[in-house]
Amino acid sequence: MGAGHAHQLYREGRSPVHTLPPHCKIAAVFCFVVVVVSTPREAVWAFGAYALLLAGVAAVARIPAGFLLRRLLIEIPFVAFALLMPFVAEGERVQVLGLSLSQSGLWSAWNILAKGTLGVAASVLLASTTELRSLLLGLQRLRMPPLMVQIASFMIRYGDVITDEMRRMRIARRSRGFEARGVQHWGVLAKSAGALFIRSYERGERVHLAMVSRGYTGTMPVIDDVTASRTQWTYAAALPLTALAVCLTGWMLT
Amino acid sequence: MHVPDGFINAPVSAATGVVAAAAVAVSLRGARRELLDTAGGAGAGGGERTAPLAGLVAAFIFAVQMLNFPVAAGTSGHLLGGALAAILVGPYTGVLCVSVVLLMQGVLFADGGLTALGVNITDMAVVTTVVAYVIFRGLLKLAPGRRRMVTVASLVAALVSVPAAAAAFTALYALGGTTDIAIGKVFTAMVGVHVLIGIGEAAITALTVGAVMAVRPDLVHGARGLTARPLELRNTGPVAAPGAPAVARTADEPEAAPAPADTAPAPAAVTPRRSVRRVWLAGLAAALLCAGVVSFYASASPDGLEKVAHDKGIDKKTEDHATQDSPLADYGVEDITDARLSGGLAGVIGVGATLAVGTGVFVVVRKRRAAAEPAETV
């Protein structure tokens, strides 16, 4: 566990995408997703173009396709949900392979699948090319309230610690022969959760005292302020601007 | 439960984004107050406590969402945490912490779309937490000064908060859904499924709050008025010292206390027994109610898909546990939210799950009774 802070989410690299300032990347990804969401769903080719754009970014960032695809798995619950759509939606019915499917349901399923997948892929690219800490710095640059940034950074920093505590409790339970098999064991698990809360809260108090004793007054000094040059903004803007062009074409053609 | 991009249209997403931002701004202010007067003693002299405490609580919520509660036959669920956060740390901090968790899940794990962040925060952080806290306080007002009431109140609060979030989602969906499924159908499916999820959430929340109440009642924000006076450190002599940690740690692990072998299971079995039975009776009542309403819509469609999704989720999870380099990597596809996918099939699942839960209750109660009687005679 030596490399506790090297997350599997982040892929080390020195590509042009990695070196872009974080707030440019966050803004670019957000604008990209907004553009994707506002594309009419009938413009099927547009989504193909978006996918190609993202594939291009992934290629520049040297993110292997397998890594990207594996992370896309988080979407599975909604894929299943989308697959149900054609069966339950209203409207005209079409016969496909002997099944009666709703036409608008098919369109909705496509809509959710395409937009959801592109959104997830864009976020995955962001998270895998930006370190956790610089993501937070970027959010701060984008005027997220400083207190919120601090809370998020504490959550990120201590997330591993707290999950490790939980894992140690699980090991302690198992080494005493406990195995949660069903509802009758919820009491034990809930006690662990309660203990975990107390430990986290008390750790928070200790962390606070330690910080106060080192001169903390409620604000964290910004040591490494990230700045972005105009060229970097231009590079970052390439993705959403191309997407915007695709989107506008899509609106005009449909 | 995390809504992806493209599910709710752009205007409604933007509007909920504004609502979410306003809610977060209000709770930033409120959380500062809540966490300030949590200071049980002299406190740390006005230092800003919000960031470390709220951050650690957010980390706790994040972690506890990964704690799996086995239901039956290989399926398991996990806590959503909104009601728990509201009761343990107060509504403002609760909203704040759950929002931060959602934000981080969206940005880091791509769980929930970036444009749907407003929808997710409004739905899961604001509605759940506020509804749970209002119900919790309301019930406590009905029977003031009763500590047992805290468990019952948190049970009901969590039970209602989950379907309330589902109803709120349905409302958002009615305003800006991108599919044209009849709203009545969405409502029935969402609320029906989430009543079931809510039963699990309620039981776990009540048990967890009970566990915290047993050890550090001063930390339970919702029960602030009930404990007579704040806990204080007393300088007992070195003789009494070994006893103190044992008392404080009983909730960690039942075996942690250096006790004779036969008493170790007894405290674990006796104290929660009553509350567990009550939890399950309430759960049974709610499940029956749910079945009565939802079964009306039952159809003969297959519900195998649900089971497959569950199995897939389980497989993935066990795999992840094997390669646990980073705990965050654990974060897999969770199962209970999968129930959402059941759409119009909610009726079938509702009845099936109600039966399963119902029979489970009887088995559990019988087993516990059988186990408790010899334990008491020993």
Automatic annotation (TrEMBL), chain A:
PANTHER family: SLL0384 PROTEIN. It comes from the Bacteria. InterPro entries: ABC/ECF_trnsptr_transmembrane, ECF_CbiQ, ECF_transporter_component. It comes from Streptomyces coffeae. Pfam families: CbiQ (PF02361). CDD domains: EcfT (cd16914). It is found in: Cell membrane. The keyword Cell membrane applies. The chain crosses the membrane at residues 43-60, 72-89, 109-127, 233-253. It is a multi-pass membrane protein. Coiled coil: none annotated. This is Cobalt ECF transporter T component CbiQ. Keywords: Cell membrane, Membrane, Transmembrane, Transmembrane helix.
TrEMBL record, chain B:
Residues 277-367 form the PDGLE domain. Pfam families: CbiM, PDGLE. Residues 237-269 are annotated as: Disordered. Its main location: membrane. It is a multi-pass membrane protein. It is found in: Cell membrane. Keywords: Cell membrane, Membrane, Transmembrane, Transmembrane helix, Transport. The chain crosses the membrane at residues 12-31, 51-71, 83-104, 116-140, 152-175, 187-215, 279-298, 345-365. Residues 237-249, 256-269 have a biased composition (Low complexity). PANTHER family: METAL TRANSPORT PROTEIN HI_1621-RELATED. This is Energy-coupling factor ABC transporter permease. The lineage of its organism: Bacteria, Bacillati, Actinomycetota, Actinomycetes, Kitasatosporales.
